[in-house]
Structure prediction request, 270 residues.
Amino acid sequence: MKRDHRYVHGYSEREDVRLQDQAGVLAELLHAGVRYAAGERIFEAGCGVGAQTVLLARNSPRARFLSVDISGDSLRAAARRVRRADIRNVDFQQTDLNDLPFPPGSFDHVFVCFVLEHLSKPLFVLRRLKRMLKPGGSLTVIEGDHDSTLFHPWSEKAWKTIQCLIDLQARAGGDSLIGRQLFPLLKQAGFRKVKVSPRFVYADASRPEWVRGFTRNTYIAMVEAARDEAIRQKMISPAQWREGIRDLRRAAGKSGVFCYTFFKAVAVLM
Ligand SMILES: C[S@@+](CC[C@H](N)C(=O)[O-])C[C@H]1O[C@@H](n2cnc3c(N)ncnc32)[C@H](O)[C@@H]1O
Prediction:
C-alpha cells in the first residue's frame, strides 16, 4: 500500500470521523453552487475517506466523478462510504497528485478540498491539474487558513497548541496558511479568470450545531490530534499542551466564541 507518511493529520479512525463531521457541518457553506451537468467528467483530487465525494456526487447525480488519493486505505473507506450511500457515479483510483497520469483535456472540472495545504509543491500540482482540463472547464479549490482563527476568551496557551499544528504541517512540507494564497497561486498557475470568496464560520452558544460540529468536532479535534507529534518533536511539554487545550475548549463553552475563515476559489480555463 502506498502511503504519504508526512501527511500531518494521519489516517486514524478518529480522523475519519473528524473529516465526516467537517464535511457535514460545512456542506452548505462550501458546496453551495457546486453543481455539475449531466455527462460531465469531474476529477476530485485528494478525496480522502470520501467525506466530500458523497456530497459532490449526490449534488450532481448525472455527472461522473473520478476521485483519487495517495492513500489506499482512505480510498477503500471512501468506496465503502459511497456504496453504503447507494451512489453509483464515482470511480476511485490511487494516485499521487505529484505524478498525475491523465492526458491533457481529460476532465470538464476539477475539485480540490483541503489538499493543497498538505502538498510541498502546490503550484506544480495546480499547473498539472490545469492541463487536465478541457477549454471552458473549471477548477474549484477550497482551503482553510489557520491564522484566520479567532477565539474568545483569548489565551496565549491555547494559541501555542494551534501554532504547534501550523509548525508541524510546515515541517512536513505543507502550509496551513494557504487559504489566503489561492488567488495568487491560481494566477501563477496560468488561470486568467479567478474568483475567490471567503467562507466565514462563526460559532457561539446560540448556534450549538456549529459549536459541536465545527469548534469541537472539527477544529479542536484537529488540533488535539497533533499532541503526540508536537510533544515528540519537543515543541511543547505535556503540561503546556493540557493547559492550552483546556483554554481552547473554553471557546466552545457557554460564553465562548470561535471564528474561522475558509477560502473557496473557482478558476475557469479560457
Ligand atoms: C484533509 S484530507 C482531505 C480529504 C477530503 N478532500 C475532504 O475534504 O474530506 C487530505 C487528503 O489529501 C491526501 N493527499 C496528501 N498528499 C497527497 C498526494 N500527494 N497525492 C494524493 N493525495 C494526497 C491525503 O491522503 C488525504 O486523504
